[in-house]
Amino acid sequence: MTYDNGTEMADHKWLSESTKMDIYFANPYASWERGTNENTNGLIRRFLPKKTDFGTINEKQLKTIEQKLNNRPRKVLGYRTPLEVISQNTT
């Protein structure tokens, strides 16, 4: 998993140990090192453009966006959906 260098990952060692997943940090201002992340941000912005007041977004709206994104085929996943990949890896 690759992250930005933000404070949200201050506890990355715990996450890595708990999930047995290697965690990497992208170089500052190197968006090309986080391709899937940047692509996903673009998809989210289709529903929630910049300057959206998140105080006006309710749980139902978020669930709808989540459902649409998790059921959208992705090239990086061999044109499977994230939901299909997760389902295959948990059975």
UniProtKB/TrEMBL annotation:
SUPFAM superfamilies: Ribonuclease H-like. GO terms for cellular component: cytosol. Gene3D superfamilies: Ribonuclease H-like superfamily/Ribonuclease H. One of its GO terms (molecular function) is nucleic acid binding. PROSITE patterns: INTEGRASE (PS50994). It comes from the Bacteria. One of its GO terms (biological process) is transposition. Residues 1-90 form the Integrase catalytic domain. This is Integrase catalytic subunit. It comes from Croceitalea dokdonensis DOKDO 023.
